[in-house]
Amino acid sequence: MNCVFCELYNRKEEVIYESKHFFARFDKFPVSPGHAEIISKRHVASLFDLVNDEWSDLQHAIIDVVKLIENTDLKKVYENSIENPLNEKSVQFCKKMLDHIGINKKPDGYNIGVNEGKAAGRTIDHLHIHIIPRYFGDIENPIGGIRNVIPKMGNYEK
Fold first, then answer.
1. Which of 47, 83, 120, 154 fits as disulfide partner to 148, beta carbons 3.0 to 4.6 Å?
2. Which CATH superfamily is domain 14-110+129-140 in?
């Protein structure tokens, strides 16, 4: 089996956090400073494949990774990613983070989500949960949050 996340974990590459059932890394194509992924050590595609012990561990992993994000020098993370790039597209994303309103600020909120299935945008068939820090002023109007994944459907106040 050729799985990028399984290979990363087996090589212990990019691991910033580890628990019994999960590990985490900073996303190589960040949409916000501190954007991280919590990845199942067991090769499963779906959140719904988790067993009770994994669900419990995931709860703790989310809390721990949020704390890690809040205590990391994110500017250094992206400078290092630019010096040792995955590819040119990753460099472009990391450069945007260095100019982002939230660089080296404590996040004001978080979007936490899973692209559950191809129709939801999943591109790697290995469970990974996105932890996306949010900062006041990072977009004009955050109303609707993750509802905005479907264009023009996020703002239910209009």
1. 154
2. HIT-like (3.30.428.10)
